[in-house]
Design goal:
With 185 residues, the chain is of the alpha+beta class. The protein folds into two domains: 79 residues, no CATH class; 81 residues. Helices cover 28% and strands 29% of the residues. The strands form three sheets. The chain has a five-stranded antiparallel beta sheet with strand order 4-5-6-7-11, with no helix packed on it. Strands 1-2-3 form a three-stranded antiparallel beta sheet. Strand 9 and strand 10 form a beta hairpin.
Length: 185
């Protein structure tokens, strides 16, 4: 946290009805994620939470009000980080090495457009492309593309078991990878 963050943290805490401590946790996570994604744990968001543009996930999975609050807070903080770029092109306070690990330039196949959500944990990463109705998963270097059909994916959960299962939330409920047709990979 920089010395200039105090005013921002206080303003965001009041605006979004959360504690300054919660704002600091989210702001730190956003900086680690290059201003485009955050993964953190805080009691005010139900524990483990994730955010990227178009995708919010809170510990209380079906609490839509809490998910909307997280989305609004993260969107405001990401916009602030976007406008506080330094002259060198890197965001002030952003750990660029972390950003490049999680947002490796277009690791997904060409022609899918810009992802609405990108995430990674351990050696498993995903990217969601709602406009082309595709989900791309990179599992230890093996990239697979799935057709999401009518699902509008907005949440992701990863089991920490040996099978490292990913599940997604859509307007139709939980979606397993095995439920989606594989397009390639």
């Amino acid at each position: 946290m920089s010395a200039n963050d105090g005013d921002l943290v206080d303003r965001m805490a009041k605006k979004h009805s959360v504690s300054p401590a919660a704002v600091r946790v989210v702001l730190t996570a956003l900086r680690r994620g290059g201003g485009r994604m955050a993964q953190f744990s805080h009691v005010e968001f139900g524990g483990m939470s994730q955010w990227s543009p178009g995708m919010s996930m809170v510990g209380e999975m079906f609490n839509t009000q809490l998910r909307a609050k997280l989305d609004a807070l993260c969107s405001d903080l990401a916009a602030h980080l976007d406008t506080s770029e330094t002259a060198g092109g890197a965001r002030a306070g952003v750990d660029v090495s972390y950003r490049s690990q999680t947002r490796t330039e277009d690791w997904w196949p060409a022609g899918l457009g810009r992802p609405a959500a990108v995430g990674a944990q351990n050696d498993l990463r995903y990217a969601v492309f709602p406009e082309t109705r595709r989900l791309v998963i990179d599992d230890r270097g093996t990239v697979s593309v799935y057709d999401t059909g009518s699902h509008r994916i907005f949440g992701v959960a990863q089991a920490q078991s040996t099978d490292r299962t990913l599940t997604f939330s859509s307007q139709n409920g939980l979606v397993k990878i095995s439920d989606l047709p594989k397009v390639s990979g």
